[in-house]
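User: Hi! I have a protein structure encoded as tokens and I'd like to know what sequence might fold into it. I'm fairly new to this, so please keep things simple.
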């Protein structure tokens, strides 16, 4: 990237021009390069990759803590595996990349580049699972998957190649499998809300929007771009659909052969990073939570006429040496003006800037500026360790509170179609009485989509909400309350 582009102050109104803000930011903050010459395939630059790795580690730690073991499965899946589960093949086949040749030889079996790994893993699960003693069986892999998206691609949000973790679990009983679906939602809450500060709601998806081959799906919806939804991890109750078609069975305690119950869960890390950028970022650029910031601290020397440049540089260098043992830290030694350096690091979302000038040098102090609040304060140099130990939590708390407040201000309710139409363009969720999230409710969902652009996201998980009134479209007695929103 030419220097003059990189150094220009970033200032785009995020609320008014979200798409421009988002795309420019991915480029200017050196997160993503879209110039690779295959459409829908991205280059993740270090600033994105470091944050993505840290997010993936959070998930792996949490999954392992709850009994999952890591594995690696092949990226290619023979066509015959795919065809075993009818609904699954129907759902995924329009999006599969196929490998048909090895060199110039036509392959005997054409091979799918995995769009998701059920059909690669469950063939092997059928070999391994024999007895109730082998259960529960909980495994995951961290990998990339490929889907030939036919809709307009959007970097990190809808790509033809993306990185995720997929967990695939097997249980003796339905009850245990359903408990796992709840646990997957708890993991999502623990990481995405509590560690990354992104609020979301979990919805039981309507039958027309569930994972292909699942009995039911819960999907997490965050809000970006003035209240449009972004789907975050979903978790699926597969019932016995796959265990029956893939021949996974076990001998239970009474000596009977039975099919086990399965679940799968798939956090996609690029989307989660996109949510962090979109939710916390401001008009000046990225605002990273401290824990996943690709660079956590930047040290900027401040030179004014007549100052002892060498002494300031030495102090910065010593500080850099000390801090890099524990943090991801940069010392900006470039010959740019301080203002240009500030823009540069603010754009990249570095949570903490430490300034060292003449005053700091002589008084053994440091000036610290927080990216999330813009607050500037001077501290005693010997207080630095303590300050840094706490500041990550404070930044996260602030980001989370701000995001929660915005999210909670975007929850609406409509009792009639007229009320709905008035709220349709406000952004956020609108709760309405509705007839059914089984296939007989689909015509009503289609009317809503056509007349307002809103989608039925599903029934809220975790809160009992009694249905009241009549379906706002067909007038039948409402069986449930559903949430509507526009997707980004
Ligand atoms: Zn209806």
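Assistant: Happy to help. Inverse folding works backwards from shape to sequence: for each of the 488 positions I chose a residue that suits the local structure. Here it is:
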């Amino acid at each position: 990237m030419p220097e003059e582009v990189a150094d220009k102050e970033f200032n785009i109104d995020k609320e008014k021009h979200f798409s421009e803000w988002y795309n420019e930011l991915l480029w200017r903050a050196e997160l993503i390069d879209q110039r690779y010459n295959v459409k829908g395939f991205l280059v993740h630059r270090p600033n994105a990759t470091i944050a993505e790795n840290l997010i993936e580690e959070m998930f792996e730690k949490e999954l392992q803590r709850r009994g999952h073991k890591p594995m690696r499965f092949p990226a290619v899946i023979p066509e015959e595996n795919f065809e075993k589960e009818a609904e699954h093949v129907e759902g995924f086949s329009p999006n599969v990349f196929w490998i048909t040749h090895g060199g110039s030889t036509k392959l005997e079996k054409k091979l799918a580049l995995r769009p998701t790994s059920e059909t690669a893993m469950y063939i092997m699960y059928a070999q391994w699972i024999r007895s109730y003693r082998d259960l529960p069986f909980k495994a995951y892999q961290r990998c990339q998957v490929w889907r030939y998206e036919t809709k307009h691609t959007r970097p990190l949000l809808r790509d033809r190649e993306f990185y995720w973790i997929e967990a695939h679990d097997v249980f003796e009983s339905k009850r245990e499998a359903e408990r796992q679906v709840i646990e997957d939602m708890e993991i999502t809450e623990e990481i995405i809300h509590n560690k990354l500060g992104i609020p979301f709601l979990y919805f039981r998806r309507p039958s027309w929007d569930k994972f292909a081959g699942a009995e039911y799906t819960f999907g997490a919806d965050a809000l970006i771009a003035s209240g449009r939804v972004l789907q975050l991890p979903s978790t699926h109750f597969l019932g016995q659909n796959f265990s029956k078609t893939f021949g996974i069975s076990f001998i239970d305690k009474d000596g009977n052969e039975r099919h086990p119950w399965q679940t799968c869960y798939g956090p996609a890390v690029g989307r989660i990073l996109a949510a962090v950028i979109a939710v916390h970022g401001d008009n000046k650029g990225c605002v990273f939570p401290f824990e996943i910031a690709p660079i956590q601290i930047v040290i900027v020397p401040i030179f004014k006429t007549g100052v002892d440049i060498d002494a300031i540089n030495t102090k910065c260098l010593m500080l850099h040496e000390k801090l890099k043992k524990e943090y991801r830290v940069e010392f900006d030694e470039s010959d740019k003006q301080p203002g240009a350096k500030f823009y540069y690091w603010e754009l990249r979302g570095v949570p903490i800037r430490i300034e060292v000038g003449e005053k700091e040098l002589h008084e053994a102090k440091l000036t610290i500026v927080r990216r999330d609040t813009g607050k500037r304060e001077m501290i005693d140099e010997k207080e630095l360790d303590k300050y840094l130990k706490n500041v990550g939590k404070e930044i996260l708390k602030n980001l989370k509170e701000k995001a929660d407040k915005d999210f909670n201000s975007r929850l609406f309710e409509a009792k009639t179609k007229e009320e709905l139409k008035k709220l349709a363009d406000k952004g956020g969720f609108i709760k309405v009485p509705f007839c059914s999230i089984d296939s007989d409710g689909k015509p009503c969902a289609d009317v809503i989509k056509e007349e307002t652009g809103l989608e039925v996201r599903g029934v809220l998980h975790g809160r009992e909400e009694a249905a009241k009134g009549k379906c706002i479209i067909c007038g039948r007695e409402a069986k449930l309350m559903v949430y509507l929103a526009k997707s980004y």
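A useful reference point when you look it over: The longest strand covers residues 228-239. Feel free to ask if any position seems puzzling.
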